[in-house]
Specification:
With about 220 residues, the chain is α/β, with parallel strands linked by helices. It has helices at about 20-25, 35-50, 70-80, 110-115, 120-125, 130-155, 170-180; strands spanning about 10-15, 60-65, 90, 160-165, 195-200, 210-215. The protein has a 6-stranded mixed β-sheet. The longest helix is centred in the middle third of the chain and has 25 residues, at about 130-155. Pfam families: His_Phos_1.
Length: about 220
């Protein structure tokens, strides 16, 4: 099959399920907290819809899955794939959440009491990651994914798709950078707990990255 006839590769970008802190709005970066019981059930239900032979996320089409080492992401990964053969996966700190530093565990209004006018999209996090550091880390992840996609499309190696199981701000930054937008435009993408984004390309060209879907089967309030 010629490279032009092969289906375009995709990236499935998945935010972990609900935690107590995602439920109440606390900034959760380094803190390693579990999914709620409801969060686990939501992921299990989603897995039956999304993951399996002939479904949107078909394990036989996955060449690899990158997973944040935080337990909320790692547990989400295992719940998604527990009813099928576990795909090849890599735990990587590159997929961790934005490091909130001094603002870890705080609500947005509590942060703004300390730093009026604060916006993570322009100010980053003191004691954590700056905007520039976050962008560099996400851009590195994107380069890794695109290399898998290039090898599939141009050299006929690997299978079609890649998956990342990660976090909210990470995903919003990732989507913005994937489509070559400035990082701060990630503020306009709402990524729900357990939401699945599909990233691919337009016009059968790896030079035209695109957002195909956002928050598939997420519980949107």
């Amino acid at each position: 099959m010629s490279s032009n006839a092969r289906p375009m590769p995709r990236l499935f970008l998945i935010r972990h399920g609900e935690t107590e802190w995602s439920l109440n709005g606390r900034h959760t970066g380094r803190t390693d907290i579990p999914l709620t019981a409801r969060g686990e059930e939501q992921i299990k239900e989603k897995a039956q819809i999304l993951v399996g032979d002939g479904k949107i996320i078909d394990p036989k089409n996955l060449c690899t899955v990158f997973v944040s080492p935080r337990q909320r992401a790692h547990r989400t990964f295992h719940l998604l794939f527990e009813h099928v053969e576990t795909p090849n996966h890599i735990l990587t700190e590159n997929a961790r959440e934005w490091d909130y530093g001094d603002y870890e565990g705080l609500l947005s209004h509590e942060i703004k009491e300390r730093q009026p006018g604060w916006s993570i999209w322009k100010d980053g996090c003191p004691g954590g990651e700056s905007v520039e550091e976050m962008q560099k880390r996400v851009d590195t992840c994107i380069a890794h994914v695109r290399e898998y996609h290039r090898q599939y499309k141009e050299e006929g190696i690997h299978t079609r798709d890649v998956c990342i199981v990660a976090h909210g701000h990470f995903s919003r930054v990732f989507i913005a950078r994937w489509i070559n937008f400035p990082l701060h435009l990630g503020t306009h993408f709402n990524v729900e707990p357990g939401g699945v984004a599909v990233l691919s390309y337009n016009h059968n060209s790896l030079d035209e990255p695109a957002l195909n879907a956002l928050n598939l089967y997420a519980d949107v309030n």
